[in-house]
UniProtKB/TrEMBL annotation:
SUPFAM superfamilies given in the database record: alpha/beta-Hydrolases
Domain AB hydrolase-1: 77-190
Pfam families in alphabetical order: Abhydrolase_1 (PF00561)
InterPro entries: AB_hydrolase_1, AB_hydrolase_fold
Protein name: AB hydrolase-1 domain-containing protein
Gene3D superfamilies linked to this entry: alpha/beta hydrolase
Superkingdom, taxonomy of origin: Bacteria
């Protein structure tokens, strides 16, 4: 009886390991939550230009360019990478805040999200980010020294990877995890997640390669990515760096104390984009 019970437990354990190994893509990427654009920058009074970006491997990405007046008037450009669920239409509040600070924004949906073609993957999102960077520098004409990479949640892993390969004016990691294996190990402490994870988004490791100013934003009340991840990212980064603690949960931290959020973000940008 004991051995039969042990065999059942072992089979369940192995089954969970197999599920996480083979299905982690559907656990990390949630593009199907809402692929429709239910709003656009026009709904909040902002002009925008629809974008179609083509990646190096032939995927077509849907995005928007939201100007801050004319390019000459723009303080700089934010290239924004959103989290693992929803699409660009769910990030209008960010677009408004960036516009209020005199910043233009390039925002796009990863492959498989929104109206973009393909299926999401870690390496795929990195190629998507490279396509956005090329459009920002070669088509829109913004020099690297006037571009801020802003990553929200999973988008922080995408932004960190791009920042390690380019030389942006600054990098912002908002509600970002240190790595997928680190987060998974906290969710499933009895499973060997670091061995099972082939999706990594190792932002902590990337920080060793990043020299630009860094702003880490996190809430103690984040209900998805623990606050400790933000602190570890901040502590691992080289200066210049700042940490902004916000209120609220994972998806609405910037809403609480909005004016303070804008003021501190503006203060962080002043040395690089006065």
């Amino acid at each position: 009886m004991f051995w039969s019970a042990l065999q059942i437990v072992l089979l369940i354990y192995l089954g969970l390991m197999a599920l996480i190994y083979f299905r982690q893509g559907s656990m990390v990427f949630l593009p199907e939550i809402d692929r429709d654009y239910r709003a656009s920058p026009t709904d909040i009074g902002l002009p925008f230009t629809p974008l179609k970006l083509t990646t190096a491997d032939g995927e077509n990405l849907d995005g928007w360019f939201v100007p801050a007046g004319t390019k000459r008037e723009a303080r700089g450009l934010v290239v924004f990478f959103h989290g693992n669920a929803g699409n660009i239409a769910h990030r209008l509040d960010y677009l408004r805040m960036f516009h209020d600070l005199g910043l233009a924004t390039l925002i796009m949906d990863y492959r498989g999200y929104g109206k973009s073609s393909g299926s999401p993957s870690e390496q795929g999102t990195y190629r998507d980010a490279e396509a956005a960077w090329l459009h920002a520098t070669q088509v829109l004409g913004f020099p690297a020294g006037r571009i801020v990479l802003f990553g929200e949640s999973l988008g922080g892993g995408v932004a960190a990877q791009l920042a390690a390969k380019t030389h942006p004016a600054a990098l912002v990691l908002a509600s970002t995890f240190t790595s997928v294996p680190d987060l998974g190990a906290e969710l499933y402490p009895l499973l060997p997640i670091h061995w099972l994870a082939h999706i990594r988004y190792d932002s902590l490791a990337r920080l060793e390669e990043i020299a630009c100013p860094l702003l880490v934003i996190h809430s103690r009340n984040d209900d998805i990515i623990p606050y400790t991840h933000g602190r570890r990212l901040f502590e691992a980064a080289r200066p210049p760096k700042q940490f902004l603690e916000v209120e609220g949960g994972h998806n609405d931290g910037f809403v609480f104390g909005r004016e303070d959020w804008i003021r501190q973000f503006d203060g962080f940008l002043q040395p690089v984009l006065p």
